[in-house]
Amino acid sequence: MDSIAELSPGDMRCCQVCPRCCRADRRGGKLGFCGIGDQIRVAYVGLHHGEEPPISGSGGSGTVFFAGCNLRCVFCQNFQISQQFDQGCITRNLSPEELAEEMLRLQDRGAHNINFVSPSHMIVQMAGAIEAARRGGLVVPVAYNSNGYDALESLRRIRGLVDIYLPDLKYLDNRLGRRFSGVDDYADVVPAVLREMHDQVGVLQLDHGGIARRGLLVRHLVLPGCLDNSRRCIEFLARLAPDIHVSIMAQYAPQYRAREYPGLDRPLRQAEYDRIVDHAMALGLENAFIQDLASQDQYVPDFEEESPFS
Q1: pTM score of the predicted model
Q2: Quick one: which of 104, 122, 167, 197 has the fewest CB in 10 Å?
């Protein structure tokens, strides 16, 4: 490890662990903007086979889906656990030691990694659980799978705990972030976040079996009618590192409240997606994962079910 985690439960007394800086006393029982106090609220723990090939491999990614979120995306496919987790889906509260035990069980089941999904608001609790799990024998890589709206200071203070970063790059247009995700400054925050992640772990490194051991893989979901934004995102990634691994996602279809927003009320079209892929290829982004539009029907979980991805 490059350093030990410096985050502590006290950081949630006046919470600034994500860019919302809502200053809620989560340690004292108040809820942050994310809707979570200081507990580890988990919606799902299990092997997941729907990530990119270097992440899922043959054995699956050991996913830990946290409840709550610091964004309010109107098209979120995980809205049941990100924004409506008190309305039907099953969640449970775990201590850091209990979460560490879950991580070790995933490792025993053959998980290629431990994959924390939506950790930006849970970074303090996550850090404690990782340290406990490593003391208990965790050796598989740890992945930080976020929406990209992370606090630089929090990321710097967990340097060495995370092996693989899997951030989204949603927008480089604050107007879209404001309209679709309820955030004023996403496009201002995310470039420095991606640079920090790249500085910590570098480009994606694979073992002899093609499984990720360390590095950065950035995901970009192409939204219908927002191709200028997608071009900006792809161009930024090409400048960040020409050999960067990027997942260009075609799986957009209207979910949650998206049908209330003209433009987002239809699936992505093949021609739109092809333009962005062609742009990425023209920029030399050869380490790109490409999706089929059939994925629009394949990656929608139901967190009210015991097995949401079945």
Answers
A1: 0.95
A2: 104
Q: Quick one: DSSP state of residue 267?
A: P
Secondary structure (3-state) at 269: coil
Token couple for 113:
């990694």
**Phi, psi (5° rounding) for residue 33?**
-55, -30
**Positive or negative torsion for Cα 117, 122, 123, 125:** negative
> Is the torsion defined by CA of 176, 178, 182, 186 positive or negative?
positive
Rounded Cα gap, residues 54 and 51, in angstroms: 8
Rg of the chain over Cα atoms, rounded to whole angstroms, equals 18
279 burial type by CB count under 10 A (0-12 exposed, 13-18 middle, 19+ buried): middle
pLDDT by residue (tens digit) across 83-130?
A: 988 776 778 999 999 999 999 999 999 999 999 999 999 999 999 999
Distance CA 230, CA 273 (A): 10
Q: Are strands 61-66 and 40-48 parallel, antiparallel or unpaired?
A: antiparallel
